[in-house]
Design brief:
- It is a single chain.
- The chain is of the alpha/beta class.
- 54% of the residues lie in helices and 11% in strands.
- It contains eight helices and five strands; from the N terminus they run E-H-E-H-H-H-E-H-E-H-H-E-H.
- The chain has a five-stranded parallel beta sheet with strand order 2-3-1-4-5, with helices on both faces.
- Helix 2 packs across helix 4.
Length: 172
């Protein structure tokens, strides 16, 4: 069997995939990897710049490749960008993985991110855009998830513990 991540985190922007992922990696004695960071490093520009310069379709192609590479090679904790699950091939790739969907409602998203314009998909009417994104994506997150961990009103340490418990993983 090929190397696979110990856990893959999915969920909307601002839910805390990177923060919780780093905590999980520390607790499991594993490496942490974020596919958005991989894309930024490879492209030498921010996600927002890629969206503005090349468009969402170009970004999604980069994201699909980054996810496939990371799932094939990374044996630690892996965080995916919020829209990674939009791709059917990516969802198929995730069926053989331990995937945790970190969920939150719109009020929590407002509290955490302020739904600021630095997020290219939320530039106009952020609250309404966030709700629309979640309507389009929630079922996809649920489709790939081995477990769902609500993050509303919880700190990163509590969420990390809930992920470990949900997957019955032991700390290193």
């Amino acid at each position: 069997m090929s190397a696979v991540p110990v856990v893959v985190l999915v969920g909307p922007m601002g839910v805390g995939k990177s923060t919780v992922g780093r905590l999980l990696a520390d607790r499991l004695g594993a490496a942490f990897r974020d596919t958005d960071d991989d894309i930024v490093a490879a492209q030498g520009r921010t996600i927002a710049e890629i969206f503005v310069d090349d468009g969402e379709d170009a970004f999604r192609a980069l994201e699909k490749r980054a996810v496939a590479e990371a799932v094939a090679a990374h044996t630690g904790v892996l965080a995916l960008g919020g829209g990674a699950v939009l791709d059917a091939d990516t969802r198929a790739l995730l069926t053989a993985q331990r995937v945790v969907y970190l969920s939150m409602d719109v009020e929590e998203a407002v509290r955490r991110t302020g739904l600021n314009a630095a997020r290219p998909l939320l530039a106009v009417n952020p609250r309404q855009q966030w709700r629309a994104l979640m309507e389009a994506r929630r079922h996809l997150y649920e489709e790939v998830a081995t477990a769902v961990v609500p993050t509303d009103g919880r700190g990163p340490e509590d969420v990390a513990r809930a992920v470990l418990d949900a997957l019955e993983l032991k700390e290193a």
